[in-house]
């Protein structure tokens, strides 16, 4: 062929002919690149999936916590929900007996759906439309274009769609609330400043017994008990002091200054006061009973 850019009788330029010949390859490459963008990057590598397949349920959760770099699983609700989302998806895929490649693409699908919701703020309708486009790329409907892109068969594709309906799409509003709504922080603890008591002779007074544990008090603060010899010496020192008052105080009769007549008069006065009070009380009770009987008699007369 000539290398000039002129026209060839009855045809197009050589440049145009070259473009026409290579256009199917360019279109194929563009389609392949678009397919690769949809399926990549992988959420989990082949090595990570292989490690998780050898673990039980708790091991899968621990591996995903490490891969997701989760630090506050027990205190952060968002992190706990995300870990549960991925763990549930992986365990469901294990029940489907997926291959390693199918594991990789399914976990990537879960991650991209969550990415569309969290970052792109994609609605439920948009997520369903996007899922249809992706399943057309990796599902059996794309078999006629390229067999190597056929990752899932019809049964597996339908099972994936059913799982996404009951896992993500059924609770789509809750996931939106999780990512978009601000939640009030609840204080579940308080910070306290505690100063350590210095040794005796410092600026701090000795602590109260109520402010420290009994073990610390009995070990370091409680005075040591005195020995038996010391207790005897203390008793001997206290005995002379206590015996002196007892020896110096003679026995005195409290009735020595009163005669028999004085005692009789006092007892008689006390007895009269007691009898008068008793008699008054009896008279009051008799009067109350008399009034009650009179009232009953009047009622009988009227009847």
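Q: What amino acid sequence fits the structure above?
A:
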């Amino acid at each position: 062929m000539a290398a000039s850019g002129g026209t060839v009788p009855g045809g197009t330029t050589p440049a145009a002919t070259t473009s026409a010949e290579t256009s199917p390859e360019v279109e194929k490459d563009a389609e392949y690149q678009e397919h690769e963008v949809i399926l990549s990057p992988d959420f989990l590598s082949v090595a990570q999936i292989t490690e998780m397949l050898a673990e039980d349920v708790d091991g899968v959760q621990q591996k995903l916590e490490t891969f997701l770099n989760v630090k506050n699983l027990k205190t952060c609700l968002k992190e706990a929900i995300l870990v549960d989302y991925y763990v549930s998806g992986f365990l469901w895929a294990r029940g489907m007996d997926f291959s390693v490649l199918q594991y990789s693409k399914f976990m990537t699908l879960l991650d991209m759906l969550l990415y569309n919701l969290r970052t792109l703020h994609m609605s439920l309708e948009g997520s369903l439309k996007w899922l249809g486009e992706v399943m057309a790329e990796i599902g059996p409907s794309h078999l006629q274009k390229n067999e190597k892109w056929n990752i899932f068969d019809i049964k597996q594709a339908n099972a994936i769609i059913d799982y996404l309906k009951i896992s993500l799409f059924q609770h789509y509003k809750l996931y939106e609330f999780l990512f978009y709504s601000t939640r009030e922080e609840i204080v579940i603890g308080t910070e306290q400043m505690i100063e350590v008591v210095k040794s005796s002779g410092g600026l701090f007074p000795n602590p109260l017994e109520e402010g420290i544990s009994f073990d610390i008090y009995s070990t370091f603060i409680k005075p040591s008990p005195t020995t038996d010899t010391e207790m005897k010496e203390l008793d001997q020192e206290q005995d002379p002091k206590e015996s002196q008052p007892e020896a110096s105080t003679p026995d005195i009769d409290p009735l020595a200054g009163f005669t028999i007549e004085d005692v009789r008069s006092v007892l008689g006065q006390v007895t009269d006061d007691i009898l008068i009070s008793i008699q008054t009380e009896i008279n009051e009770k008799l009067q109350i009973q008399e009034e009650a009987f009179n009232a009953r008699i009047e009622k009988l007369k009227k009847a």
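Q: And what stands out in the fold?
A: The two ends are 148 Å apart (CA to CA).
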